Amino acid sequence: MQNTSRRPRRALVAATSVAALTLTGVLTALPAQAAASTLGAAAQQSGRYFGVAIAAGRMNDATYMGIVDREFDSIVAENEMKMDATEPNQNQFSFTNGDRIVSYALGKGKKVRGHTLGWHQQQPGWMQGMSGPTLRSAFLNHVTQVASHFRGKIDSWDVVNEAFADDGRGSRRDSNLQRTGDDWIEAAFRAARAADPGAKLCYNDYNTDGVNAKSTGVYTMVRDFKARGVPIDCVGFQSHLGTGVPSDYRANLQRFADLGVDVQITELDIEQGSNQANAYRQVTQACLAVSRCTGITVWGVRDTDSWRTGANPLLFDGSGNKKAAYTAVLDALNAATPTQTQTPTPTQTPTPTQTPTPTQTPTQNPGTGACSVDYRVTAQWPGGFTADVRITNHGAALNGWTLAFAFPGSQSVQQAWSGVATQNGNQVSIRNADYNASVPSGGTVQLGFNGVFSGSANPVPTAFTLNGAGCNGAVTPTQGPTATSTPSVTPTPSVTPTPTVTPTPTVSPTPTPQPTCTLPSSYRWSDSGVLAQPRSGWVSLKDFTVAPYNGQQLVYATTHDNGTSWGSMNFGLFTSYSQMGSASQNAMPFSAVAPSLFYFAPKNVWVLAYQWGGPAFSYRTSTNPTDVNSWGPHQNLFTGSISNSGTGPIDQALIGDDRNMYLFFAGDNGNIYRASMPIGNFPGSFGSTYQTIMTDTQANLFEAVQVYRLQGQNRYLMIVEAMGAQGRYFRSFTATSLDGQWTPQAATESNPFAGKANSGATWTNDISHGELLRTNADQTMTVDPCNLRLLYQGRSPSSGGDYGRLPYRPGLLTMQR
């Protein structure tokens, strides 16, 4: 992790749509007189530490250091012990600031975590230019020299940081260090052990908090290291979380602990929202429930010290006051049993008794169970695959469903969408998501997942059950119902061999929904002001589309030059919108006006849709959306035409549910249009057929339609740009399904979704074409109604002239409640 004063960086786990973690009955309370009053003291009662990342540049801040002195018993340097700080020139080492932090910590009796000996980022410039054996030698020398300098002072080292990719496959990250040989991580651990034999040696990474492809890749490496005697002692989970905690968070910690390594939560920060205190409590309880979870470190002291500007993700506010999250953590720590050795006992007791309950909850209305299943492997690569599963219900209507089957080979589910998957051995069960529980008689529900397999074969399952009754699977139509699949849902055999792992099935039903918010009847926003100016040669930046990418923001936009030419671009990745103005602006090699960017999870591919590229709308795909040169060839998205429009179809918006992909668009003519296709046919062309779903005046339904799913609700939000007396503004509408009717919600200029009347913006009257910031990048276009933010285009009220050359600039609205 690094401070915002340094180069921006990466991953924030998009946990805003995952189930809340429930650990009821896991912890027992201490007598009231035994409760500690600080985080470090409370953690010590159960044999753990509670640490904080600090910066040398803030050590003269009395409020800052007062909190550090009082609350924490472990310290890690934010940047001062990283590669560029400790070896700025080859073989010329600088430890001044690192020594200052270590000396302070040891002088106060606090532990020190060392961060980090090896990382693909924050390498000194001289190292970035190296490769092959020369780089390997220089890197191992760095590990040896730095670890030797701090020998005997470090409790645990992050030997290697973030070496796995976010590709959904559990692969190693392609870096200059990785290209020196696949054994570079092992070599680093062996060098660190020789240099500092008394320190625990850890591997540290992000987006590994739940059981997913990336964490499984790390798990496989650690298991291999332990089997071969590579000196690894601990695994760090950064836990840069959104507003929720992965439902399998504790189970994931436990599976690593079961390998014989300690686990540590190393860089914890959780986005502020109505669930922040509860999420901090859940993380703390998860660590307390795993006997080998030795401690927690938060990444920063006060919200104003955080690298996640604006997210307010820490335990103390900018003035140093304790937040509700602080109290939740302290109470959880004080509720732990006093000795670490006693911790596993209570965690085992309640778990088995809860297991049967969640497996029954999906079968609220089981119907007859008669069904057909079409299971298809739509993509496959060495060791991994993507599966598409389509269930057709031939019985009575269902209100809650669970599909069960057995893998015939050595396969496992890694990441599922449109369903919640659990697996025990080769038995898999997938229950409905919160938005697709109802399946009418004759109805179809579609889901999918990424999986891994060992060996050369990836055979498809041939027998399925729906709510315990057999299906005639489309894979083998003559196959009869297979009763042996049914027990995989009920007994949950994982309880027997390893009781401490059983929280996985107990969490899956999530009886209490993710905290959510109703939309206000009147919106009120705060405004950022102008965030960025166009680079030389451009006069306008507009039509913004934004997707979260590895914890950062990836923004594409339309450009216009001083003449008549439209173009398109993207910004270099940034973490906070305060950094948007300094991010690179990268011109695209083709024109993609009014772009729409999202990750299509069923096919594991990024999609960029746009207008004026040939037919009405076009699209391209990529596996690296940060690179403007990575996009594939032009493909037709929609070829239809509309009447009574001077522009033709304009401003596409794409969104998917569990069955279909939908295309919404406008025409600058008072109409909103919709087309659809089965989700399995996407990416592809919607053809030329459409429906007109809304009609009003040209001013009231002008352009820039966008459609989103509200997180935790069976409800959708549409915003449409309108023309008012005071400038452009957005009207909002809601619906309970994407193919349903839309009801006006905040739809007048005096009471808009966002406009001059409620934006708080003083630099622009227009609140125009842009997008709401989403909780994840996928095709569901999910937004958090508790934390709406709108990236929009605005311009000086005194500007005028040709529309293309109007000086549009980006601004950000944040909803105020």
> How many helical stretches?
15
Q: Radius of gyration, rounded?
A: 27 Å
Mean pLDDT: 85
- By secondary-structure content and strand pairing, the structural class works out as alpha+beta
Question: Which parts are unreliable, with pLDDT below 50 for 5 consecutive residues or more?
Answer: 1-33, 340-369, 473-514
Morphology call: globular
Strand coverage percent: 25-35%
Biggest sheet overview? 9 strands, mixed
Helix fraction bin: 10-25%
User: How many beta-strand elements?
Assistant: 41
Strand order of the largest sheet: 14-18-11-10-20-19-13-16-15
- N-C termini distance: 31 Å
Overview of this protein structure:
This protein has 15 helices and 41 strands. With 817 residues, it is an alpha+beta fold. Strands 14-18-11-10-20-19-13-16-15 form a nine-stranded mixed β-sheet, with no helix packed on it. Helix 7 (184-195) links the parallel strand 4 and strand 5 (200-205). Helix 6 (132-149) runs parallel beside helix 7 and helix 10 packs parallel to helix 11. The longest helix is centred in the first third of the chain and has 18 residues, at 132-149. Residues 1-33, 340-369 and 473-514 have low confidence and may be disordered.
